[in-house]
Design goal:
The complex is a heterodimer of chains A (391) and B (109). Chain A has 391 residues and is of the alpha+beta class. Chain A is 47% helix and 12% strand. In chain A, helix 4 packs antiparallel against helix 5, helix 4 packs antiparallel against helix 13 and helix 5 packs antiparallel against helix 6. With 109 residues, chain B is α+β, with helices and mostly antiparallel strands. Chain B has a single domain, classed as Alpha-Beta Plaits, CATH 3.30.70.3270. Chain B is 17% helix and 19% strand. Chain B has 3 helices and 5 strands; from the N terminus they run αβαββαββ. In chain B, the strands form 2 sheets. Chain B has a 3-stranded antiparallel β-sheet with strand order 2-3-5. The longest helix of chain B is centred in the N-terminal third of the chain and has 9 residues. The chains are: A alpha+beta (391), B alpha+beta (109). The interface between A and B is medium-sized, with 31 and 24 residues.
């Protein structure tokens, strides 16, 4: 039956505490399981003790890298619940900052992915190129990583023409570099050997396991919340959904690199077409939304992110629920790690496969309640979505 | 090949890092940093300690009434208190803050 090989919870190639349980026969992985429950922080429970205004800053800290996605989701959710309309200009600015966050998240991933392949030069180059984007974030929002930009009722600051000019300059430079990395991924024999055909996830499997984000899009499934369920001004900003059909780690890398280019175009378009007007409506600090429930979905850098809120009419939520993209992708990564249908998985490929889904464990560790038949005791997704559409 | 060219080019480029203790990166003009408090302007309305998400503002009583005390070791630099203060007694600075040996120096009264 093979040998049990634990990888983690502390392992040099895991950025966070994860236990990958492998069952190996020789060099081949025959079975795998992932335990991501080492960093449960009780954020959902803590959100029930915060007012809606305070909860925003806790929701922001669910994930450091995709904090803009979390605040976008939180504000969209609470604004829909309370019937607050953010100004039009604020929606455009939210979109621009969200795409900037996607750029820096994907660049961080590129570095870590190169690091797991043992390609330290690319790690350094990716982090060098991420730096100017973080500087831009600091200048636009006031915070380098935890931006605190989105607030209930709009965004905190406006951009001035000088800053717009600077952003465009930095992004134009970045674009050239990303094109170079794309060329590198297409031509470098070492990268090809480490990623081509590694971590195979067929289109059917990705569909059945409900993969989200770049993992689904690298398996030829065009699943993107920005197209399927636009939440900001995505109808007005032209962009393409990047789809690759190689179904492997290389495809996931290419999807992310192409998405950076797409995001750069989106930010430039958004800044060119900024509508005039206010960026924030005043909301009282202890506002009380009417009793009810609401949900919202956002395309975070790692995939679809879902927030759900239930209110009883007080200034604090009764229940707040977050479903992060990595949680949705863990089922896929377990399948990728198994040798099956003639696709052999080697032990040396495990770090590359695992980091190819861009795991963010800290936001994943949360409780899901099952009954004895294995059914999740929560509302199905389509019911949640109808709730939002019917507002 | 692509990385080889990049590596050769790097010999002629300006370095991407800085020599930290001698050189420092200045925070941008809009950076949200440490707070400062002007006690004479405060009217003791209590909005700041009620709104603080990190419970970093405590109440303090003096002969004029309730006044806030800022525990900057708990502060998450969200600056809601700066925005909400009706008398603009709480001011934001660009200061990133530095390491301290004594925690009590992070209490701003």
């Amino acid at each position: 039956m093979g040998v049990y090989l634990p990888m983690g919870p502390q392992h040099p190639l895991h950025p966070e505490a994860t236990l990958v349980k492998l069952r190996v026969e020789g060099e081949h992985v025959v079975d795998a399981d992932v335990d991501a429950s080492f960093v449960h922080r009780g954020i959902e429970k803590a959100l029930e003790h915060k007012t809606y205004t305070q909860g925003l800053y806790l929701a922001e800290r669910i994930c450091g890298i995709c904090n803009v996605a979390h605040t976008t989701c939180y504000t969209t959710n609470v604004e829909s619940l309370a019937g607050i309309e953010a100004p039009y200009r604020a929606l455009y600015l939210r979109l621009a900052v969200e795409e900037l966050a996607r750029i820096h998240s994907h660049l961080l991933w590129l570095g870590l992915f190169a690091h797991t392949m043992g390609f330290e030069t690319l790690f350094m180059l990716a982090f060098r190129d991420r730096e100017p984007v973080l500087d831009l974030m600091e200048e636009i929002t006031g915070g380098r990583v935890t931006t605190g930009y989105n607030v209930i009722g709009g965004v905190r600051r406006d951009v001035d023409p000088g800053l717009v000019f600077k952003i465009k300059g930095v992004l134009t430079q970045l674009k050239e570099r990303i094109l170079k990395y794309k060329e590198l991924f297409e031509s470098d024999p070492v990268i090809q050997a480490r990623t081509r055909g590694v971590g195979y996830l067929s289109k059917n499997e990705a569909g059945e396991l409900l993969a989200v984000g770049p993992v689904a899009r690298a398996s030829a499934i065009a699943r993107d919340v920005r197209i399927d369920d636009p939440y900001l001004t995505h109808e007005e900003v032209p962009f393409n959904v990047i789809v690759y059909d190689t179904c492997d780690a290389w495809g996931r890398a290419m999807v992310r690199l192409d998405e950076i280019l797409e995001s750069i175009n989106m930010v430039q378009y958004t800044l060119d077409h900024l509508p005039s007007g206010e960026v924030r409506v005043k909301v009282p600090p202890f506002f009380r939304p009417p009793p009810g429930e609401m949900s919202s979905r956002v395309e975070a850098p790692r995939g679809s992110l879902l927030h759900y809120v239930k209110s009883d009419g007080s200034d604090r939520p009764v229940r707040y629920r977050v479903r992060t993209p990595t949680l949705a992708n863990l089922a896929s990564v377990v399948t990728m790690l198994r040798s099956r249908n003639g696709k052999i998985v080697h032990i040396a490929d495990v770090p590359v496969i695992f980091s190819s889904i861009d795991p963010c464990i800290c936001c994943t560790a949360r409780v899901t309640i099952f009954d004895e038949r294995g059914h999740v005791l929560e509302k199905p997704l389509n019911e949640l979505l109808d709730m939002r559409r019917g507002r | 090949m692509v990385t080889s060219f990049e590596a050769i080019k790097n010999f002629f480029r300006k370095r991407a890092t800085i020599l930290y203790p001698e050189e420092k990166i200045e925070p941008s003009a809009t950076f949200r940093g440490m707070l400062s408090f002007e006690r004479s302007l405060c009217i003791g309305c209590g909005l700041c300690w009620r709104v603080c998400p990190a419970s970093a503002i405590k109440q303090d009583r003096d002969d004029k009434g309730a006044r806030p005390v800022f525990l900057l070791d708990r502060c998450i630099f969200c600056h809601i208190c700066v925005e909400i203060c009706p008398k603009k007694a709480i001011k934001a600075s660009r200061d990133r803050g530095s390491l301290v040996m004594d925690k009590s120096s992070l209490r701003v009264k």
